[in-house]
Every structure is written in structure tokens, then in C-alpha cells.
Amino acid sequence: xxxxxxxxxxxxxxxxxAAMCAEAGIPVFDADAEVRTMQGPGGELVGEIDALxxxxxxxxxxxxxxxxxxxxHDRDALAALELLVHPRVRDRRERFIAANxxxxxxxxDIPLLFETGGEGDFDTVxxxxxxxxxxxQRVLARPGMTPAKYDRxxxxxxxDADKRARADFVIDTGGSLDETRAQVDHILACLxxxxxx
Length: 197
Hints:
50% of the residues lie in helices and 14% in strands. It has helices at 14-23, 31-39, 46-52, 64-71, 75-99, 132-140, 147-155, 160-166, 177-190; strands at 2-7, 28-30, 57-58, 61-62, 105-109, 124-129, 169-172. A hairpin with a 2-residue loop joins strand 3 (57-58) and strand 4 (61-62).
């Protein structure tokens, strides 16, 4: 089984590329989606996060905006949160691998792959990238996003150029969806997972 990591900074198009890989028949593990589930209504981390950051739980779920406001300015608070969350994500990842043991390849959508030193767990690393103006426009179009919040998020992410330099493959999502899909197909063909169209 080939384990493929998909990463890239915020707003680069990881979800789009992951969906294209899923359409090609590759099971996808979405680390962010797993975190949202664990922090959502009845999620396994709700009580622990609220104990660590009192008042962040609302109606049985973590208020992600409130939690972000508490940790994005405080490096120690962010580290404490990551110490709680990352092992649980790893546990879910291991269960995903076991559940898909017969698949020839698995894709892991992990936004902070390089920031957490996790790239060594994978056979191939794909970085999704886009021009800075495209990235900014995409992110600022998200509900609740502000320029200040966007800048804080970027501060804790490795620069795009560094990620590109460390990748096995780079997908540029600054063009059309068809151009992105052609790059995905080419990479899958290079990995022996699907013929290029």
C-alpha cells in the first residue's frame, strides 16, 4: 500500500484535489474533518477541550471560532491544544488504514504535515499550491474570515515556497479545474495508480 500525504497552506485547494483523488477510487483520510467531528456535537474531545479552555463549548460542541480566538495569539495554548488533538487524529488515521488495508493506495489530507514533522510517515508527499493573490481571495471569501485572522493562520504555517521545495509532486490550483484535474491524473499515472487521460 502506498501512503500519500496531501498538504498545502490554507486556501490552496486541498479539498478539491482530495475529491479528485477520491473520484479516482483512492480512499481519503481528511484530518481536518476528523477534528471537526471530534469537536462537534457529542464529539470525544468536547469535554477535554472545554476543560482546558473553559467556556469554549456551546450546546455540546466546541465553538471553533471562540477556540481559535483563544489559541491563535498564544503559542503555549496552541501547543496544549495540539498535544490533546494530534494523538487522537493519529489514532483515527491508524483505524482508517486498517479499515482500508486492501487498497493499493491511501491519501491523507493533512494541512499541517510539515509543521508537525509528519512527512516521514508517508511514501509520497503532494503539495497543493496557488499564487498568493488567488490564495488570499479564496480564504477571505470564507464566512467569518478577516484579514487579521488570515495573517495569524499564515504565521503558523510553513511558507508555500518551503512546502513546494520539500514535495515529491506539486499541484498548481491557480488555473481551471480541468488543469488541476490533469495534474492529478498525471501524478496518479506516475504513481501507477491510474492512467493519464
